[in-house]
Amino acid sequence: MKPTTIFTAIQPTTNTHDLDALARRAxxxxxxxxxxxxxxxNGATHLSAIARIELAERLITRRRFLxxxxxxxxxxxxxxxxxxxVDAPTATTDGMRMFDHPLLVDGPVRIPAxxxxxxxxxxxxxxxxxxxxxxxxxxxxxxxxxxxxxxxxEELQQALAQTESVGSFPTDVESVVxxxxxxxxxxxxxxxxxxxxxxxxxxxxxxxxGSQWKSMMRFWGEALNQTDLVEQLFAAYEARLxxxxxxxxxxTDITISIIRIRExxxxxxxxxxxxxxxxxxGFSRPPSQAYTLEESEAQYGNPYAAEISRxxxxxxxxxxxxxxxxxxxxxxxxxxxxxxxxxxxxxxNAVQNEQAFQVGxxxxxxxxxxxxAVIDDLFRYVAEVDPQEVxxxxxxxx
Length: 398
Prior knowledge:
With 398 residues, the chain is α/β, with parallel strands linked by helices. It contains 17 helices and 14 strands. The chain has helices at 16-25, 32-40, 49-68, 123-131, 142-149, 154-162, 173-178, 191-197, 213-223, 227-248, 273-280, 293-300, 330-340, 343-346, 349-352, 367-383, 387-390, and strands at residues 74-77, 83-86, 96-99, 109-112, 118-120, 138-139, 164-165, 183-187, 203-206, 256-262, 265-269, 305-308, 320-324, 356-359. The strands form five sheets. Strands 12-11-10-13-14 form a five-stranded mixed beta sheet. Strand 10 and strand 11 (265-269) form a beta hairpin. The chain is elongated and about 80 Å long.
C-alpha cells in the first residue's frame, strides 16, 4: 500500500496543530534522515532537503513532548502507513513527573524526572545546575555577566565554556530547538518567547522577580530535585554571615548605602539581590533605601530601585557607600568617573571618611555566587579583614 499522505503541502512553519498531527502519524524514530525521507513522501516534496531535516528535528522534539504530556500514544508504523497503538506510558513508568509550585506560571507541568538535555534561560536555574554539576546545554545573555563577574570561579567558568548561547533578550527559539532539549527553564520576563518554547519541550516558568533570589533558588531546587544541595548552600551562606556579624561586632549600628551607576544614570537600590545580603548580615540601610517591595513601589514607582539625579546624591549617603556597575564597559566606567568626581559626591560623609567604594556588577545579586562575592566585599571594606583568612568563599574556586 502507498504511505498515507498527511498534508498536500507541509509548510516549513508548520503550526503546533499540524506538528501534533504529524507526530501521531510519523514513524516512531529519532533518525533525522529516516524522518526526512518519510516527510518527502508525505506532502513535503516542495521543501528543500535542509528544510525537511529541520522539520524532522521539530517533529522529534514535539513527539517527545506529546509522549511526556500523555497526549500521544506510542506506535509503530507499518509498511502501509497503519499505526499499531500501544498504551501511553504511565506516570510511574515513563520517567515523567508532575511539578507544581506557587511560583510556577501556568502549573502544574509534566516534566522529566531526570532531565538530561536542559536549556536554562533563567540565571538562577543556570547557577543551580552548575553547582549541581549538570551545566545546561544552552543559556542566554546573562552568561556574559557570569564571565565578567566571577572569573575565579573555575567550575562556573568551565560550565560557561560548555554552554551554547541561544540569544539574549528575546531568546532565539530556533537555537533552542536545535539543541533538542528535554526541559526548558525560563522566567516570566521572557514572556515574548515562552509561548513558542512550550511547543519545543516541557517548560517551567518562574514568576518571581530577581530580588527574591532565595525563594527562587528553593523553587529551582524543588524543580530539579536538588533540595538537599540548595539547603547545603544556604547553610554555608548563613555560616559566613554569622562570622561576618561576629567580626564586625555591631552591624545594626552601621548604615550601608547601595547605588548603581548605569551610564549617566544613578539608581539607589532598595530591594535588589545585594540589598538582601546586606540586610541578612544585620546592617542598617539609609532611610531613602529602607523600604519593602511594596513600600518602594509606592514611594518610587519601582519595587527594586529609585533613580536619582546627581544633585540628589545626598539621599544616598551612609556610613558606607557601595557604588556598583558594569565597569568593564567603557561607557559605564567613563560615566562613573564623572559622577564620582562631582562636588556633590565629594561632599558625602562616606566619601569624606574614605568609606565609599566602587564594586563590580556582582552586586546585582545573582544568587549564591553573587551573595558570597558581596560578603567578600563586606569583610574586606567594612570589617577590614581578608575574607579568605577569616571565612573563605566556598565558591571562589568552585
